[in-house]
Amino acid sequence: MSNDFRFYERQMLEYWLRTKMSLRDIAKIMRRTHGALSKEITKNGSGDRKRYRADTAQWMFERRQHKQRRGKLDKYPQLKQTVIEGLVKEWSPDVIAGKLKESGHKQM
């Protein structure tokens, strides 16, 4: 099972938190570990059981999911140029990696 909560599960969690049940009891109902619930509340709910809201938690989750991360080739233009030159020469990725090691390119 994925560690990510679906919106429906977040709504259930919000409901059960409002009933003031313990996390362990809620976890049994939802078939999750209490640690997963605690992590969800901390990460997406401002860390406070009383202020956890499913819609806000879903929004925070989606915002983090869509954050773009730059890859190595975007971060290091010289490395990108070297890889492109190898591909133009029709070298395999393994050959390009070997050539980079031979030439003493810093492992990034």
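The record above closes out task 2.4. Task 2.5 opens with a second protein, given below.
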Amino acid sequence: MEVKSAGCPLGAKCEEVRETNGEQVMFRCDWYINVRGKHPQSEEEIDKWGCAIAWMPMLTIENTQQTRQAGAAIESLRNEMVKGQNNFLNLLQSRKRQIELANIDHHKQ
């Protein structure tokens, strides 16, 4: 069975040529946009014009993937910062023990 688009949910046309003051003018819906990039599921290159409403599911999937990747990068950075902080605290504790031992030796003399 053939499937066809039912048209704009807003009741408009994406592009329409109208005559204005004796000249032909292209009227384009503000929601008619060009999307370029890779499809988030198939990695297929995309360079197509279409309604922003129709693009929303694909763009939402892409946004979710980017958010997930950013979260993973932030978690990785956090883990490295915790490691660094632990190393620094261990160094401080070691230095504190050295100073305390030096003070004990100094007081014994």
